[in-house]
C-alpha cells in the first residue's frame, strides 16, 4: 500500500457518518454473497456467482459503492461496477450513480424507507460500441430479520423485456 495513505500526517481524514446518510446506515458496510443467481432470456441456464459489495461512508452526504462479481464455478471475474448513492434532504429520495464495466453508466432514482431501498433508471448512457444496450434497470435492496442483505434486480435490453435478472443474499463481513 502507498505510504501516503498510511502516514497519519497525509492520510485522508474520514469523518463520522453524515447526518443526511443516517436513513441508509443499515446498508453501510462490506457484504459477501451467501447465495447469488443470475439469469436472463439470452442465457442457456441460470448461473451461480459470488459477490463482494460495499457501501462506504467517508463522512460526506453520500455513500461510495463498489461491487465485484465472479463465477462461483471457475472463479473467473464477471462484473464490476462502482458509484455513489446520494440521499436528498427529505431523507427518503435517493439517486444512485453507477458506472458498469460493460460500457454503461446509469442514474437510478428511488426511495429509502425503513430498511428498503428501491431504485429505477432515470438515465442510461452507453459507450458507442457496447454489445447490448440496457434500456431499464430496477433494483431492490432490503435488510431481513436475520441482518442479511437481500438484493433483486430486473433488467430490460433492446432484445428482451423487463425480466428478473439477479437475486442475491449477503452477510455482512466483520
TrEMBL record:
Signal peptide (UniProt feature, chain positions): none
Catalytic activity: peroxynitrite = nitrate
Family annotation (SUPFAM superfamilies): Lipocalins (SSF50814)
Domain THAP4-like heme-binding intervals: 21-172
Membrane spanning residue stretches: none
Gene3D superfamilies, per the entry: 2.40.128.20
InterPro entries from the UniProt entry: Calycin, Nitrobindin, THAP4-like_heme-bd
Protein name per the record: THAP4-like heme-binding domain-containing protein
Organism: Rhamnusium bicolor
